[in-house]
Specification:
Blueprint: H1 2-29, H2 44-50, H3 54-62, H4 77-84, H5 87-95, H6 110-117, H7 120-128, H8 143-149, H9 153-161, H10 176-182, H11 186-195
Helix pairs in contact: 2-3, 2-4, 4-5, 4-6, 5-7, 6-7, 6-8, 7-9, 8-9, 8-10, 10-11
Length: about 200
């Protein structure tokens, strides 16, 4: 019986040594980055963007957070505020040097998410700051296609007036006009047909 106990203790020591060795190798070859792995607290810039608070974003900026910080999900803060319709946050981040055309999760862009939601004022700010009206996102969709498909006439107008190319196609080969027709957004169809 004592032999079995000693053998089990010896095997347990070998197991612990093997586990410790593997853990050391993981640290050497796969350094742990809590933020990149989706763990831990997001910085103030990201928290401010998610909570529509310029005050929190400014605190983060003062403490050294970048206006190009990304959420755990991979979205730049500018995409977060644009998607939330937080115009003040968009203006703040532009003033702090946020990169206007940065892509986020699923190749989304700030202009693309604002167009999809129909946030005309945000589109104007982004375009004035140099956003590319023809930058593609997921499924090779340009902001104009996203606005037209979702029925946002004013967003379509803002994009066209700022140089969006109406004949861009997505992965399915459809244009903004094709999507507007398919979704029965007649005012957008009429407007886009008048641009031809």
């Amino acid at each position: 019986m004592q032999v079995n106990v000693l053998q089990n203790m010896k095997n347990g020591s070998k197991l612990r040594a093997t586990i410790n060795f593997c853990a050391c190798l993981m640290v050497l070859f796969f350094p742990f980055n809590a933020h990149a792995q989706g763990f831990g607290k997001e910085n103030d810039m990201v928290q401010g963007a998610k909570n529509n608070s310029v005050g929190i974003m400014e605190r983060g900026f003062i403490e050294g957070d970048s206006p190009n910080s990304r959420s755990r999900e991979g979205d730049p803060v500018l995409i977060i505020v644009a998607e939330n319709g937080y115009e003040l946050g968009v203006r703040y981040l532009i003033s702090r040097g946020a990169r206007i055309n940065d892509k986020g999760l699923n190749s989304r862009t700030p202009l693309g998410v604002a167009a999809a939601a129909g946030y005309d004022a945000i589109l104007v700010h982004l375009l004035k700051a140099g956003a590319d009206p023809d930058k593609t996102g997921l499924r090779r969709e340009v902001p104009l296609i996203r606005a037209a498909r979702n029925g946002h006439l004013e967003a379509v107008k803002v994009l066209i007036e700022n140089g969006a190319y109406p004949d861009d196609t997505d992965l399915t080969g459809r244009t903004a006009l094709d999507w507007a027709r398919e979704q029965r957004h007649q005012k957008i169809v009429s407007y886009l047909e008048a641009q031809e």
